Fold these 4 entries.
Entry 1:
Amino acid sequence: MKILAIETSCDETAIAVLEISEKQNSLKFNLLSNQVLSQIKIHKKFGGVVPNLAMREHRKNLPILLKEALREGELISNFQFPISKPKVDAIAVTYGPGLEPALWEGINFAKDLAKKWPVSPRRSRGGQVPLVGVNHLEGHIYASWLENAPPKFPLLALIASGGHTELVLMKKHLNYKILGETRDDAAGEAFDKVARMLGLGYPGGPEISKLAERWKTPGNGLFPRPMINSGDFDFSFSGLKTAVLYYLRDNPRANKAAIAYEFQQATIDVLVKKTADALRKYKVKSLVVGGGVTANKLLRSSLSNRVATSFPKISLHVSPLWLCGDNAAMIAVVGYFKARAKKFSKPEKIKAQGNLRLS
Ligand code: KG4
Ligand code: ZN
């Protein structure tokens, strides 16, 4: 099976082509093309993503990336737009959560392709290439399927990105129970806001972790660890962000590397502790970790140490670094599992849902 996937939920325009072969109960993923065009440079000067600019860029970039993806995936030799149908079995597209004007660009592009690429009458009774709507957060979870052995069910997933921080229980494919989530800011949002307070660039996560590495003194718990012992699986990062703000106000000469270090440590302590609490409560076989924040080196090593020491029987699947940020490869993996389960969507039913939740 070949899946074409499209992702435009935020400031990355992404298109991927994934080939999947099933042999004797084992799956082989062959990523034929993984096109990601980041708009960071455009949004950087505004200190965050501007939805209308993102929409305009997606519109401009999608046809360019499609051409490149189909060429690289050797799905079509002589590309012209609109084009004859390449050999794809389904088109997967992110329909939420995210910025609605940005999501609509990907959705409309996908619908347009489905209309232009009718399935040949020989292979079916006519109709369009089937569409699969994908939740962006499912994508962050399923990024872990692309490399190494697949995670086993039941599994716990920690998603930490710019818009979300969630612990999710999955008993089987495409089945999600949210155990807890942030009540205010997401972890990545806190990284971005604290970076701005420290005069660092956007996105803030990589900037903070780079600066924190320059601070060699062990931390002294300068900032609070919100809700760390709340007994549930919810998070809250807004108070931590405000604590940094007040500290900077009262200590304008404070060492910025020390603040970056302390803030990063506080955030990671909460993420690791809550994840460990959930692992203790739910008897899972695997822990899956994904989303932009999980590119953080310290978070990756802290989680892996914690699992090795306290949960040696649980297999840990952290998204490969190159799939932590937004991409369409992860959307293609979900697209495959949904297509296999015949979970297609009628084009008119796919609508952008900015606040879409896992269910
Ligand atoms: O998943 P993602 O690319 O987009 C969303 O779905 O939101 O996540 C982006 C977020 C940003 O807030 C960014 O600052 C954060 O991920 N991030 C990091 C790191 N790299 C990216 N946060 C902490 N440490 C990093 N190394
Ligand atoms: Zn994301």
Entry 2:
Amino acid sequence: MTTPADLSFLATDLDSIATAKGRVALLVPEQGKMDSAARRLNRLTKGAIARLLDSDAFTAAKPGDVTTLAWPTGLEAEAIDVVYLPRTAPQEAARKAGAALGAKLGEAGLLVLAGPVKRVSDVALGILLKAYGYDAQKTRKCDPLGPVRIMCKTPAEVDTAALTARAAGIFFTRDLVNEPANVLTTTEFAARLEALRATGLEVEVLEEEQLAALGMGALLAVGQGSDSPSKVVVMQWKGAGDAAPLALIGKGVVFDTGGISLKPAGGMEDMTMDMGGAGTVAGVMKTLALRKAKANVVGLVGLVENMPSGNATRPGDVVTSMKGDTVEVINTDAEGRLVLCDVMWYAQERFKPVGMVDLATLTGAIIIGLGHENAGVFSNDDGFCGQFLDAAKAEGEGAWRMPLGQAYDDQLKSRVADMKNVGGRPAGSITAAQYLKRFVKDETPWIHLDIAGVASLKTPSTLAPKGATGWGVLALDRLVADGFETTDG
Ligand code: BES
Ligand code: MN
Ligand code: ZN
């Protein structure tokens, strides 16, 4: 398990600068100005800081840019990273500045001299998130992350525990998404979720016999070709008494070969991330528990493996969902919706949630439509959807609303069953969402997030190295904080 660096905020102590180990970062809030920490660093380095601040490289710097002075005289530190960050810089610049420092974080740690900079929490979050490294399958491990100490004006005002909770949730998601499918089997996934009991979450694992008794014929049809047993895991966080919960539902296809409708070989290895929805739900639940959110939230994930075999579901098979509706499986590669429809129905029957958000790496078509910048957002409720879009925007996580409509639903008509599981090539992401909508009760405000394009990237992003991003953990944590937490007590 990858854990975030140890983080602390303290009052500025100029005398400790000279002996700080690792790297020292100086945040410069105004071009051409030196505060007391800058003057102290300048004195220790015999004027090198003043020369750096005067240099063309630094005077051309944009907010968040870093200029490095390596192996400075007069300090024990191995480098000084000078960052231009205006005192009232926006959140995005503060996180970006932190990320630049996080990318360089090593074993010996980092001391940040933040002076009067306001968004120190965002600088810290940027440092923690960008310092993530996935080394579980390497024999040569990354260096452990040293401590991050941030000296600022009002250290007591920062909620260090909440920051670390967010980073730990995101790291949990990233680890799950990055793991290969021979390691993260359905059984291993469930075991890792059961380990979340240590955080105070209630965790139940429903096994195949129970899923069959519940009538989850659609979900079971996806997993029946695999030697790994299908499971549904229910994680409850009860931070607000008896109130009905918000439900988060995740697609957890630990590997998607396509089944009998086998995918082409090129790029098939990327389908280790097809449990990204479940991974995100797990990360949000971990964050909520670690920061002891005053909200009731239940996370449910459907864990299956989509494999071809003599026992696999065939194209043309008709399966019966828990709701009772029958589905003609035209394409066994459209499996995510078969998993989600049963978990969503179960969630509504059992918990009568005040709202339901499902997350899934559901369609390649959403990548064609929105690329890797935005997740697709589908909803039956403008108010709820607006709350989510606001939360995503506030966290800098791309999210774009897509339409729904009867004509798209009509594409799902089947000659032999109540519906088919695909609607043809046009509007592939929307017809997938329409399929899910058939399993949403009229009274349930619902959001579907198609995260196929954002869950894992081939290039580094602002706050993550290559690979799993943890997209959605911040937005959903904020959605809960802003809209679903009780304020009393
Ligand atoms: N897991 C895939 C979608 C996907 C594609 C996720 C690329 C991440 C990256 C999903 O199960 C799938 O195969 N969808 C099909 C649906 C089609 C058969 C209607 C697709 O998008 O091609
Ligand atoms: Mn598929
Ligand atoms: Zn899939």
Entry 3:
Amino acid sequence: MRVLISIGERNFPRDVAEGLEALAEVIYLSAREKGYWEALREAVALVAGGERIDEEFLDRAPRLRLVARFGVGYDNVDVEACTRRGVYVTHTPGVLSGAVADLTWGLILSLARGLPGADRFVRERWAQGLERLPFGFDLEGKTLGIIGLGRIGAEVARRAQGFGVRVLYHDVVRKPELEEAYGVEYAPLEELLRASDIVSIHVPLLPSTERLIGERELRMMKPTALLINTSRGRVIDQRALLKALREGWIKGAGLDVYEEEPIPLDDPLLRLENVVLTPHIGSATRETRRRMAEACALNVKAVLEGRRPPNLVPEQRIDDR
Ligand code: 8YV
């Protein structure tokens, strides 16, 4: 049996792979590398990054029984096509929520206090003593609107308590236990957009969340508000966001994800001063990436041993319903 790992050794350390080697031949090859498609033909399990896994892909993987997504989001995987062919799809929920929530707060603080500009100022101009940096703003007493109060959104809310921030949330379901635990208040989306000083997005990319934030929604936000996105780029209409940032409908944005990744170097968003941009690093800490690899390994091991993998995506958890 063969396991193909497409996310590299840095993400899936050799010692984690060792646990699988008694059961299968483990091959590391990324989708861009030579030999990948050949290796895929014999693979029973694939540990997948962001490559598109659709019918065409599955045609080239006749022995595949498992797509183990290295990440919580699986919008790059056609789950229905996998299910039709008897291919399990798993993901890594839970283990990365804290890391993504930390980065979310990092982006909020970077914008509130102008950290990237302050850093440049110290390196390039402070000693000249001519200019002053603009003031930032306090977080205490401000309102944070969380769109999507799932595992990651809840961690963002938990951290908000320490900053003395009032939290509104919007979700497709109400979460009374989180309202109680973190003092968060439910609000319809429009109300949240109008009332929040900071709006942070934590929804999965689905047909219903694609371009959830477009021109109409951006125009509802306060001109002083910040928009943070560490979920998926396509949840925001990026052209509308560019317009909003240029024309001052909102004050700034902190983005870790983009409609196209990597975002092209000539994208006009990269020229704006009122944005802080990171390259999809929400889960990129040593501890979190290791936990993600270990979670994938458990799923792979289960399938190699003929068991049902523990972290099936909700669409495939039929027995649990
Ligand atoms: C990526 C992520 O999976 O968890 C997710 O859904 O977006 C990230 O953790 C990671 O960059 C590897 O593809």
Entry 4:
Amino acid sequence: MNVTLQNLTKTFPGRGKQKNNDVIAVNDFTFEIPDGKLVGLLGPSGCGKSTMLNLLSGLLTPTAGKIFFGEEEVTNQPPQNRGVGLVFQNYALYPHLTVMQNITFPLENLKGKDKLTKAQMREKALEAARLVQIDQLMDRKPSELSGGQQQRVAIARALVKMPRILLLDEPLSNLDARLRLQTREEIRRIQTQTGITTVFVTHDQEEAMSICDMIVVMRDGILQQIGQPQQVYDDPENLFVAKFLGTPPINTFDARVEAGKLYIGEEAVLELPDAETGPVIAAIRPEGFVPSPLGSFTCQLQRIEVMGRDTSVVCSHPAFTGETFRAIIDSDEICQISAEARFSLKENKVYLFRPDTGDRIRF
Ligand code: ATP
């Protein structure tokens, strides 16, 4: 089922007497989540991700704007009527109930024509448990399960009523690194298998990029960019998005365009015949540096970090906006790096931004 947001806004009143303390947690969001897709809400702490999810679930009512599930407007519908499944960061399982009882719990209160017999409830719970591969653990209590298994129970409980929309709020943050990796793949598998439109909240860009069909990058309640992960990575609309996606992060330099060339320090590093003259922030992805004895960009080598397949060359440059930056190169190119490291730059990995607003300057 597709989900449409129209000018969706949520303001929380500020504390104290001053009106201007109000927090606009979600500011005028208009976009559509296509049917059957996995969408990641992504952004730093406090950007409004959980607020957005709670607006979709019905736990919060918007200050303005509308929400549609398919053709049906659900803006003022209570959570229980929306057909959403919710999974929280802390799993929120009932400790005194078994896995089976935890999963059947949402089915207990169904009324009228939807009412199920005990046997039907057990069958539905087993079906959901099989999907997340915990059907062998149905008689255990949550305390007898690992964190990953508890998270699966929470997902099974959210799936048991076959929700129209599945909402996941930082579902992996309580898991260790290896389990996170495994569980995120599981989430993708379950989502693909069920075809349920799923919204996934995370502050981890790598997580979002690896499993989502579409990411929504947010900052301070404002939508920054929306698109397929690779497309947003390759074509960021502003400096915030460029910096938020990618590990190691993009490298930013105080630079300028002069007479059709991009200057970083005294060196003309790229020909940009169509770019406007003036100061810019030049942002270069770590994979945009190619070691080359005749390269136009010179910097000082600080150290080399070998990471197996790739090598991270840590360098400094007076125009760099921080201490040191990283170039990622193939391990067999390392012999070309000397104390004064020279690189040529891949033009499609170099982005220019306005120093005052951070908006992209296209060239
Ligand atoms: P995190 O990643 O830390 O969970 P988030 O991106 O989910 O953050 P939200 O929890 O949606 O962010 O909060 C967005 C903004 O709204 C924050 O500035 C927060 O302080 C504010 N906020 C959230 N809930 C309330 C509330 N009930 N009352 C007042 N302000 C709130």
